[in-house]
C-alpha cells in the first residue's frame, strides 16, 4: 500500500441539478457527490489539512501519512458547499478544506469566472456567445483565432466553450472583456448582481460555522484572478487582502494554505508566499501529491477523475495510489 502520497480531490459546484434554475451548469450533481464520497470513504483514509501540513513539515524522506490518504478541497466559497457539502461531511465526521475568494464574500460581487459559467448555463446556444466574443475582438483589432489555435486543449470543455472561457478570462484585454462580460451577464442571467452573489456565495457567518465544526478555511486570493499574470506588487496585494480577510473570520495564519485560482502560479508568487510562511499550495495540475513535490505546488485530481458510484472498483488513480482492496475507516 502507498504511504507518503495523498490524493487531493478538487470540487467546485455541488448541487441538485434537476431542481436547479441552471440545469446546464457544469456542476457535480448532489446524488453523485454522495456516491463519490462513499467511494472515497470505502477506498481511502480521509485526512485533515492539519495532518498534511504536519507530514510535509516533519518529512524525512517520504511523508508519514496513512495508507491511501485523501484530502477533500472545495474551491470558490459557494453556498452549495455550506448547504449541500458541509452536512454530509459533518455527518461522516470528515474534514473538507474550503477556499473562498475574499472579495466575493466581502463585497457581494460575482466573480468573472462565475459570470462566464452562468452565462453559458443560461444560454441554450453557446454559438451566440462565441459570435459576440469574436465581434468584440475584431472591433478592437484583435485576432482571437491565433490565441485559440495555440491554446492547450481543455480536459472538460468542447472547443467552442473552451474558446469562450479563454477569451473572457484572459485573451481579451481587461478593458474589453469586463464590460462585455457584464453585458452578457445582464442579458442572459440577471441585472441584480448583488442578489445573485448572495445566492451563490457563502457569507462570513457560514465560514465561521464551518470552522467551528472542524472544517479548514484557506486562501484563494482576493479577486480570483490569474496570479501568474500579475506583477509582484499586485500579487502581494491579492495575497495580503485575502489574508486580512482570513484573520477577520478567525483563521490562524500560523498554518495557512494557498489554493491558486486557475492553478496559475509563477516563481515571483512563490517567493511572496514563502515570505508570508505559507505552508502548502494547491494547483490544478493533475496527479497525486508526495514528498517529491514542492509543498507549494501540490497536484490535485478533479472530481471527474474518480468514480461516482459507491460500489465502483478502484480506478486507475486508486491503482497509482497503491490500493489493493483496502477499506478505509478514515475520519476527522
UniProtKB/TrEMBL annotation:
CDD domains: CE4_DAC_u2_5s (cd10971). Keywords: Carbohydrate metabolism, Glycosidase, Hydrolase, Polysaccharide degradation, Signal, Xylan degradation. It holds the Pfam family Polysacc_deac_1. Gene3D superfamilies: Glycoside hydrolase/deacetylase. One of its GO terms (cellular component) is extracellular region. The keyword Transferase does not apply. GO terms for biological process: xylan catabolic process. Coiled coil: none annotated. One of its GO terms (molecular function) is hydrolase activity, acting on carbon-nitrogen (but not peptide) bonds. Its main location: secreted. This is Predicted xylanase/chitin deacetylase.
